[in-house]
Design brief:
Helix content is about 55%, strand content about 15%. By secondary structure, it is an alpha/beta fold.
């Protein structure tokens, strides 16, 4: 025996060591001799491991190496644990020491210690469980009643937390504010600017002394510090918001039995000794042992890494926290919580990563790259021009003197002049993309305004803002990308029960003993029928009934259908506890959404076994051969009676009732398995049944659901009902909700059964899917097929789901929406957004928020492009023509702050309006910058450039300052340009709020943040101009010039109204550039043309034009490839997930 055990442990040790070749060091192996599996958390092996849990992405463009590394690291942790455990067993086998029986060490008022419990469950030590007296003995040591649970008084709960710990684990702290500041300092652009500030500071102090020479360099340094602080504050606030969302995602609500009743609590409030009901799709909330279970199968892949489904029974009773219930139901006794579980240790080593990149952010990064390339081209061009002007004697200093004269200017003066040119070039282009910056860092200190870094920031801000506000609208976002994709949804496939209806069912019709009766009056029924019916209601259920001792109302728990039938039984005088104690369930077939029925085998006091079935009325009726009549006699179901019951089902379904049938079958002379293993493989007989009752359950439509459906239709989003209910019931509810306009619409193919859709070919499904409005009697696979067909037809599909079997459809859809109340944990983890109140109106709000994300991003792009174009053109034209620029580096840093962080905050937090639902969804390949946006940008930019360049070239004449000193007059002119430019951006911020509407002030007072930022910007601008002239190279302006600045900016409002009257083409503006690009390439590549004029044009096309068009074509191609990659990756990922989930179900 010892030899056999030794060989087994050697094999285990070898099997574990082989995969770890090169992973373990010698010091690691030395720990094996002294460590048990329980000591693993404190070992250096785990402490040296840092994991990052990256949220499952629905949008990925490259191989996710980071994700693969995470999986490898987690696998190593598990392998370490197995290695140490195997080595420990190996050592024990070599020494020949038998496993010692654990002696109880009382802790507090309990007969067992936390360490003993953790050891038992961690090692799955069945002998230790037996030494405690089995599950019953262990419950006694934990002061737990297996039927009624623990007492729910606060002192008892607190005492258990003090002794055994709470069901929480230490979380890794997010980045501190100081760390975020450090990260902001690492930005290449800011590093270049800091180097330029240091050089300017050193040069200024050397030439002008410390009193006057530190202003230029100091002002740049101060501006950089402000940018760093604002960036860090913004990032810190976002991290706090995302952390709050993550905490909410992990706060699972579940039921426990306390004081004899089921109460819903947070997973964090679970304590050792709790009795916890488990149903299919639930997450095991703590380590524990099985009390009782029926067909209970657990998916332990999250802990073991193996996708094998493990059946749990009294021979294998140990349950691990973090695993999922794949099938069946049961109850468990919690024995270890929080950090005392392997799941808690794993989660304590993992930090949540919120760096998910959404499709919109990827598109914007390509857009920013395009602008960065062009900005750097402009910077190099300006540098060359300024150098040429300097060395040809065309550059003048502040007093109007020529700075360089060939043969007369010393080397030192020339160097000073060159440094000033480099500083000037810094003011031309800013914030270039990182890749472009690295190329030009050796040449010039560039980068302030050209690249709109605020655009990705605006997307992040609007996503964070939307996620926070969506929480208030009962929607918890699990995937960032879902926020924006939801705005593009063209169809929503939703469930009926609980989503379109109230999920509050009551029994209103009943057909019992072959006739229709009052469901609340069963006095006319024979006693045999009544007792069988009550036995079926009480035993064939996963719900419970609690009768308070103080005379309060009965508390019924369970699914809506279960609660309705249990409440009906209570109203008929059913004593739930008494009925369940009189007989016992020996086997169960949990309700299955495929077969749409569930059953139990009940052993009565006289040892007779009865099979009770409950499920979809027409399916149960088809399995019945007899029914019980009014005299309690069994009567064969002839064709006439079958037609009678079928007509009853149709009538109830037409009245929007859910029809449920109850039937039974006595087992006479048939062998019933007695062994637990045989029972687990026993299939309950499901034919030759006796019909007891058919009941109709009313679940009224939610208030306002019809308006919500009509709003979707108006917004171009088709709502489709996919339900497992009877087709007649589905049709009635669809008419009531407005999904079907009239009875004329309630025909095929608008209304279809799942089995009819299922048997079609793929081509037929794609063709008919777009016409389907209602699908009844559908299985989860039917829902998946419908989603696939709709996506193949070009739809952006949103799907709601609540069951475990809905997971494939939720994954396959573009946006998966899980129900927060009735949804299982498997469904929630497969979803992108959780609807916390299960209300369809909340789904519509999510659509509106999704459109708001896209709209707000477009508003900010329009605003920032206007600033970029204006600033670049003004400085480039001024530098090329005059060798000087009106907007200095510090001034552009302030403008950069206005348009990046402050502008993003102001425009990204615009709340959604009803007008967003007035147009159809934005398509997958719609251009990010629309023709309307191009029109608005060009109108405003042309106006600003024209006015400010006039001021630049003719400012002294307009201001009548020709006689003033050149230096002061020039500064006054440039200050006016700077002031007018800033106010023009502030006024244009209002225009950006409403790109298509005439009234740009509509609802502006409701956005207090927008008004606050505008006011803050105005106040700071006044302070800068009036009091910080030394830092910003400005002079104080008279009140008349202030009015001029405001007047120049004010004209942008009426100009925006006029601009919106200009019609725009329907064809995207970028397409014209793509065509020009193709034409240019064709002309340059051809050796001959159809006609000589075309040849001349082709040969004379400047290479710069081709470069520019190539960049535009590159951006357009990126957007196209992004969409194709998204579709391909999503399809592959979803197919893999669908296969894994289906394999679990069928296993």
């Amino acid at each position: 025996m010892l030899t056999h055990e030794l060989v087994r442990h050697v094999r285990l040790l070898g099997a574990v060591c082989l995969p770890l070749n090169g992973v373990l060091s010698g010091s690691d192996l030395s720990l094996v001799q002294h460590l048990t599996i329980q000591k693993l958390p404190n070992s250096t092996l785990v402490n040296q491991v840092t994991l990052v849990l990256n949220a499952s992405r629905r949008f990925r463009y490259t191989l996710d190496l980071k994700k693969e590394e995470e999986e490898e690291t987690i696998a190593k942790i598990r392998a370490h644990a197995r290695l140490i455990q195997a080595a420990h067993l190996f050592q024990a086998a070599v020494d020949g020491t038998p496993k010692a029986t654990i002696s109880p060490i009382p802790t507090g008022d309990y007969g067992v210690s936390p360490g003993q419990l953790a050891t038992m469950t961690g090692d799955h030590d069945f002998s230790a469980l037996q030494s405690f007296g089995g599950v019953k003995g262990l419950a006694e040591k934990l002061n737990t009643n297996l039927d009624k649970g623990i007492h729910e008084d606060d002192p008892n709960i607190l005492d258990r937390k003090n002794v055994f710990g709470s069901n929480t684990y230490p979380r890794k702290k997010g980045q501190s504010f100081g760390r975020l500041m450090l990260d902001a300092c690492r930005d290449t652009t800011l590093i270049i600017l800091m180097v330029a500030a240091a050089a300017s500071l050193a040069l200024g102090i050397t030439t002008e002394g410390i009193k006057q020479g530190w202003y230029d360099g100091g002002s740049i340094a101060l501006a950089v510090v402000i940018v760093i602080l604002v960036t860090a504050m913004s990032d810190y606030k976002q991290s706090l918001q995302f952390q709050s969302i993550n905490d909410e995602k992990q706060n699972i609500q579940l039921e426990v039995v306390r004081g004899g009743r089921r109460v819903k609590i947070s997973i964090f409030d679970i304590v050792v000794g709790d009795v916890i009901p488990l149903n299919i799709g639930d997450q095991v909330p703590a380590d524990g042992v099985l009390i009782s279970g029926y067909s209970l199968a657990i998916d332990e892949s999250s802990m073991t890494g193996e996708s094998k489904i493990v059946t749990k029974d009294h021979k294998s009773p140990f349950l691990m926290s973090g695993c999922k219930v794949a099938d069946g139901y049961g109850t468990m006794l919690a024995t270890s919580v929080g950090i005392n579980t392997e799941w808690g240790l794993l989660m304590a080593s993992i930090s949540e990563d919120n760096d998910e990149e959404t499709p919109l952010q990827v598109r914007l990064n390509g857009f920013a790259t395009f602008i960065g390339i062009n900005g750097l081209m402009v910077a190099v061009f300006v540098l060359i021009v300024l150098l040429a002007r300097f060395f040809t004697g065309h550059t003048k200093d502040e007093d109007g003197k020529v700075e360089f004269i060939a043969g007369q200017t010393s080397v030192g003066d020339a160097v000073n002049g060159l440094i000033k040119i480099l500083k000037t070039v810094v003011t031309v282009v800013g914030d270039a993309a990182d890749s472009a910056i690295k190329i030009f860092t050796v040449v010039v200190t560039i980068v302030v305004v050209a690249v709109p870094e605020g655009i990705p920031l605006a997307v992040t801000l609007t996503l964070a803002y939307s996620m926070r506000k969506m929480m208030a609208d009962k929607a918890l976002v699990r995937r960032l990308s879902a926020c924006e994709i939801m705005g593009s949804a063209t169809t929503i496939c939703c469930d009926k029960t609980g989503t379109l209806t109230l999920n509050s069912m009551t029994v209103v019709d009943a057909y019992i003993c072959g006739k229709k009766i009052d469901p609340l009056n069963m006095s006319e029924l024979p006693s045999g029928a009544t007792s069988l019916l009550i036995e079926s209601v009480a035993q064939n259920t996963t719900g419970s009934v609690f009768l308070p001792k103080d005379g309060k109302d009965v508390e019924v728990s369970g699914s809506p259908t279960e609660k309705a039938i249990l409440q009906w039984g209570v109203n008929l005088g059913m004593n739930f506890e008494a009925v369940r104690s009189e007989s016992s369930v020996i086997h169960a077939f949990p309700f299955n959404s495929e077969k749409k029925r569930g059953g139990v085998a009940v052993k009565r006091p006289d040892s007779q076994v009865y099979i009770h079935w409950k499920g979809a009325a027409e399916i149960i009726l088809a399995a019945c051969t007899t029914y019980m009549d009014g005299n309690g006699q069994l009567v064969p179901l002839n064709d006439g009676k079958v037609e009678y019951f079928e007509k009853a089902i149709e009538d109830m379904a037409a009245g929007s009732l859910r029809c449920v049938a109850i039937a039974y079958r006595p087992l006479k002379g048939e062998t019933v398995p007695t062994d637990e293993e045989e029972l687990s493989f026993w299939n309950l007989p499901e034919d030759d049944l006796v019909l007891l009752a058919i009941v109709g359950l009313k679940d009224p439509c939610r208030p306002g659901v019809r308006d919500a459906v009509q709003l979707c239709i108006k917004a171009g989003v088709k709502v489709r009902m996919v339900t497992g209910d009877n087709l007649q019931t589905a049709r009635a509810i669809a008419l009531e909700c407005g999904i079907l306009g009239s009875n004329a619409d309630a025909t095929e193919p608008n209304v279809i059964e799942g089995k009819a859709f299922r048997v079609m070919s793929e081509a037929q499904r794609v063709e008919i899917a777009d016409k389907i409005s209602v699908m009844g009697r559908s299985s989860p696979n039917d829902k998946l097929l419908l989603v696939q067909a709709l996506r193949m037809g070009g739809h952006v599909v949103a799907v709601t789901g609540d069951g475990t079997n809905d997971a494939p459809a939720l994954h396959e859809a573009d946006i998966g929406l899980a129900m927060g109340i009735q949804g299982t944990e498997v469904a929630k983890e497969s979803s992108d957004i959780i609807i916390l109140d299960d209300n369809f109106a909340s789904v519509v709000k999510v659509v509106r928020w999704g459109r708001s994300v896209y709209a707000n991003t477009q508003k900010f792009i329009q605003f920032q492009l206007t600033v970029n174009v204006s600033a670049l053109v003004i400085n480039v034209v001024a530098a090329v023509s005059n060798g000087d620029v009106p907007l200095t580096a510090v001034q552009l840093l302030w403008v950069n702050l206005i348009m990046d962080t402050l502008g993003a905050l102001a425009l990204a937090t615009e709340p959604p309006t009803d007008q967003l639902m007035d147009h159809h969804p934005v398509g997958r390949r719609e251009p990010l910058i629309t023709n309307i946006m191009w029109r608005n940008v060009l109108v405003q930019a042309l106006y600003q450039v024209s006015v400010l360049l006039v001021l630049y070239f003719r400012g002294r004449e307009i201001l009548h300052s020709q006689q003033d000193p050149y230096k002061h007059a020039n500064k006054e002119k440039n200050t006016l340009i700077f002031n007018a430019f800033v106010f023009a951006q502030i006024f244009n911020e209002f225009n950006a709020r409403k790109p298509t509407e005439m009234n740009v002030f509509k609802g502006v007072t409701k956005n207090r943040l927008f008004m606050g930022i505008v006011g803050f910007t105005v106040v700071l601008q006044v302070i800068i101009v009036m009091f910080l002239g030394k830092f910003t190279s400005t002079v104080r302006l008279s009140w008349q010039l202030w009015l001029v600045s405001i007047a120049v900016a004010f004209i942008s409002w009426p100009l925006a109204v006029v601009g919106k009257l200009i019609p725009v083409a329907e064809r995207p503006f970028a397409d014209y550039f793509v065509d020009m690009f193709a034409f240019c390439i064709q002309c340059r590549n051809r050796g001959s043309f159809a006609s000589w004029p075309l040849a001349i044009v082709g040969k004379s096309i400047p290479i710069t034009v081709i470069i520019l068009l190539t960049c535009l074509h590159f951006v357009h191609s990126i957007e196209t490839e992004v969409h194709l990659l998204e579709e391909t990756r999503t399809t592959l990922e979803h197919n893999q997930c669908a296969w894994s989930v289906f394999s679990l179900n069928y296993i």
